[in-house]
User: Fold this.
Amino acid sequence: MVVRIAHWGTMAIETPHDLFEHHLQEAYYVENELVDNLAVMADEVTEEQLFEDFQEHEEETQQHVQRLETVFESIGREPTMSESAALDGLVEEKNELSTEIRDDELRNVALVGAGIKTERMEISMYEGMIQLADEMDVDDDVTDALEANLSDEKDALQKLKSRAEGSKLKQVLADLTG
Ligand SMILES: [Fe+2]
Assistant:
């Protein structure tokens, strides 16, 4: 179970350390939000394989939250969230599509696409944080935790991309476009 932390970040960003902490707070918001959103997406898809993919990534995302909590601990800070407009935009866009699309299989295609966009955003997020961490004097376990999350996101991206290229979705697109 994910514990919602009441702290919200309102810090001045003046040093690379501040910037790292800000990104960490954003990542903490993103991963917490995605635990909920991946559960919603698992319910929205109508194909068993996609349901399992989203559910599996939801479980991984709970681990991502926990790994970020170890990073906060390593840098001597309380886990704190800072809202990510990028994630909010992706979720809003996904919700709009999901509501507007009437055809179940076309909605599946849109949801895989939304998942791919989200994974790419998370990959950029972690790559940026790891780059900053490398330039700072942080414990190895900070970098290890971020690398572990990045690796899961890359695997999730590959899996979703393979679903997007899978024969069933290809057939759906072929049927819809004639
Ligand atoms: Fe994640």
